[in-house]
Amino acid sequence: MIARVLTVAGSDSGGGAGIEADLKTITALGGYGCTAITGLTAQNTLGVKDVHPVPPDFVALAMRCVIEDIGVDAIKLGMLTNAAIIRAVAATLPDSVPMVLDPVMVATSGAVLLPDEAIAALIETLIPRAALITPNLPEAAKITGLPVGTQAERLAAGERLLEMGAKAALIKGGHGTGAALTDLLVTRDSVIEITLPRIESRSTHGTGCTMSSAIATSLAQGLALEASVRRARDYLQAAIATAPGLGAGHGPVNHLVSIEAVRL
Question: pLDDT tens digits, residue range 45-98?
Fold first, then answer.
């Protein structure tokens, strides 16, 4: 049976992030994507113009409709918009399915997508349910209250996320500096560094959505956590390197890049 991935996230009218990026990624990597949309955004590569939240009960209903009929092998959580939606999602999550939490707080353009009052709800209800949480450096600092300037500090932030209840944390290095970027995969048993060349590009819109969806798809297909993360990173690198260059701002990556190098 094809691997079934439910993405619970916001919709991006520009198509580069959110639900749209998730579905493209899941499909490109051989999975079947289903959705529960948490919010509608009016945006393009230059920024987010407005966000329209979906009623929490409707988000939960969409989740239940998918879970009870089609079934899910992994769940990815992205932009959750507000505390009420976060609590509705948490109450609907099945216990037996791995969940990848991308704690979307700020868009690439700088727009705030999760208010401060909702972060406490995310920490309380979702981090303890996460098989993996995938914060970038600003998100890791915001959630943990710790600095993330050095590799040692990033490791400490990852360990703090485990203390908060996550089974594993991927501290992404994309917001760092230097010719290479290093992601830290922190589990209770190991710390794995994944280092790749940094690609200088303005086409980085939706990279967090793409990465987390790719990991969720591989987990749904039965890959182990480290293999899932490495496959997702390879896919994202190729997608950035071959980005179509759309828009005048932060453009989308190429979700349809050949996956010959990142196949199962």
Answer: 999 999 999 999 999 999 999 999 999 999 999 999 999 999 999 999 999 999
What are the tokens at 40?
Answer: 């509608």
Decide: 128 and 165 in contact? Cβ < 8 Å: yes
Cα–Cα distance measured from residue 181 to residue 219, given in angstroms and rounded to the nearest whole number = 23
Whether the model clears a pTM of 0.90, i.e. scores above it, the answer is: yes
Cα 14 to Cα 18: distance, rounded to the nearest angstrom: 10
pLDDT attached to residue 106: 73
Length of the chain counted residue by residue: 264
User: What six digits make up the tokens of 234?
Assistant: 């390879």
For residues 138-165, average pLDDT: 96
- Least Cα distance to 250 among 7, 12, 8, 11 occurs for 12
Residues forming the active site: 172, 204, 206-209
